[in-house]
Amino acid sequence: MRITKNHNGLYALYASPARLLRGVRKKGSNGCPGNGCPTMQGTGTIRMFNEMMRAEIWLQDHVESQQGIEDLASRLGYSTSQVRRRFKQCFGLSPSAYRDILRLEKAARLLIFTPYPIQTIAARCGYQNHSAFSRAFLRYHNLTPRQYRQEQRIRLYRHPYRQEHSGDPPSFEICKLPSRQALVTRLYQHERESHLDNLRKLSQNIRGANALPERLRQGPGIALIHHLPLDSKVERIDLGPLIDEASTAGVAIPVSFRLLELPAQRHACVPIESLDDIPAVVQYLVSEGLPKKRCFASGEAIRVEWNDSDMTMQLPIHRE
């Protein structure tokens, strides 16, 4: 199997996502998921990956929903058996098993970062039955939801920021960001590049970016990082330029990109130098900074926004 790797060490959509989701894939004797890997040659395979990327995003966006694979298949114009077979070919898991992982990882974030009751968290993660949620959570995390919340919060609050880091804690502002739009493509992460220059270069060199006007590729960009700060078996990033109606008039959207609506929402905004700063910054915000302002993290994807000179982490929050 031929996999193309870009200069930043990240595999974009044209590489098999199953090769990228470490810890999820089941390797065969050739190191590929399941019973082997599909060839990467030909437009048919690339089209299949684009379609399965849309399927994966649909599963993420419908974690709370009771809609099933039949609804997904209908949306894609395939039979359910085709969707199951092609999705597993790309991701090494059935769509149902993949969504179960998304649900249980979302539940972990909500348990740690929010004050919501466990029953509310179960419902927000697509579980109608509290007992079924607790059993599934125990199988995946080896702790009950209550035990997991207690253990993780003890770890979170055990070491104040000043004991672990030199200097003052990071300064942050509570910002109500307006509704905006971005043109993004999804990357399945293999190795993380940290610096602002690499993130900007990556956004300009991902598949399909050369079809965008120069003014978009050189303008402000945004990344939605769905797997930080907790470890995840399904590491994924949405990456692309921020846009407005004037900048995209008459622009054909590349097939691997999609228009993403970013609703108006409060965020804790922190200037950062590197993506490696994020875990420590989030720990400080969640354990010390946000409680002082009577806020808490919502558990939604962390945003990183950049321009020519700055990079800002934006943590979605709610007020108590």
Description:
- This protein has twelve helices and nine strands.
- The protein is α+β, with helices and mostly antiparallel strands.
- Mean pLDDT is 81; it is low at 1-41 and 191-196.
Topology:
Elements: H1 43-61, H2 69-76, H3 80-91, H4 95-113, H5 118-124, H6 130-141, H7 145-158, H8 161-164, E1 173-177, E2 180-188, H9 196-205, H10 214-217, E3 221-225, E4 236-243, H11 245-248, E5 258-262, E6 265-271, H12 278-292, E7 295-297, E8 302-306, E9 311-319
Q: Give unreliable regions as ranges.
A: 1-41, 191-196
- The rough form would be described as globular
Determine Rg (CA atoms, Å). Answer: 20 Å
Q: What number is the mean pLDDT?
A: 81
Question: Helix share of residues?
Answer: 40-55%
Q: How would a textbook summarize the main sheet?
A: 9 strands, antiparallel
Q: What would you call the structural class? A: alpha+beta
Secondary structure tally, helices? 12
Proportion in β-strands? 15-25%
Helix-strand topology string:
HHHHHHHHEEHHEEHEEHEEE
In angstroms, what separates the terminal alpha carbons? 51 Å
Q: Using DSSP, what is the number of strands?
A: 9
What oligomeric state do these chains adopt? single chain
